[in-house]
Amino acid sequence: MRPVFRFIVALGAAGLVILGVGLLQFINFEPPGQHTGLQARILGFWDYDQKTGAITGDPKDHFKTTERLAAEVDWAALPPDLLVGGHWFLGGFALDAGGVGPARAGDFGPKPAVPLQPPSDRGTPPGRYTFVVERYSGLKPVEVLARASVLVIGGR
After folding, report:
1. How many CA atoms lie within 13 A of 69 on its CB side?
2. Dist CA 151 CA 155 (whole Å)
3. How far does CA 39 lie from the centroid of its chain?
4. How many CB atoms lie within 10 A of CB 97?
5. CA dihedral sign of residues 142, 148, 154, 155
6. Alpha-carbon dihedral sign for residues 143, 25, 93, 83
7. What pLDDT, on a 0 to 100 scale, did the predictor assign at position 34?
8. Dihedral sign (CA 54, 133, 136, 87)
9. CB contact at 8 A, 55 and 47
10. Per-residue pLDDT tens for 5-33?
11. Helix, strand, coil proportions of the chain in percent (round to 5)?
């Protein structure tokens, strides 16, 4: 019975360590007392012209791998001195796919487009991309102000 009891105690200890590490990560990335109640507005996803740096066409909810895309954010709706950033992620928060900031919301001015920056010149890999607007404290994101997803599908 002793080996089985020790094994069960070891599994319990490992579970407590995993729980503790998860709690520390949660406190690190979502510090207590950082909620402001502010919300940003992501106006949509558009085709993006790299040469002019402008969005074109109508908003879409999916793109082909050969198309460039950008999110449009209403930065003016946020307090101008608020430190914010907008970032693209592939597969939840697994792979960073570009973005802007951190900078003061008022510094973004008339450039509301935040282009997706594909990892290669061969186009954008297919998948679900999430665009997140975050509030920063120093250089650390502390609050998500808006989140939206768009689908990139294969094909020409």
Report:
1. 29
2. 13
3. 15
4. 21
5. negative
6. positive
7. 67
8. negative
9. yes
10. 999 999 999 999 999 999 888 777 666 76
11. 20, 40, 35
SS (H, E, C) 56-104: ECCCCCEEECCCCEEEEECHHHCCCCCEEEEEEEECCCCEEEEEEEEEE
End-to-end CA distance of the chain: 64
Structure tokens at 139: 């250089």
- 35, 41 Cβ separation under 8 angstroms: no
Over residues 104-126, the pLDDT tens digits come to: 998 887 667 899 887 666 777 88
What's the full length of the chain, in residues? 156
**Residue 64 is encoded by which pair of tokens?**
């082909």
Give pTM, 2 decimals. 0.76
Give the Cα separation of 45 and 67 in Å (integer). Answer: 12
Output the six-digit token pair for 149. 């997803």
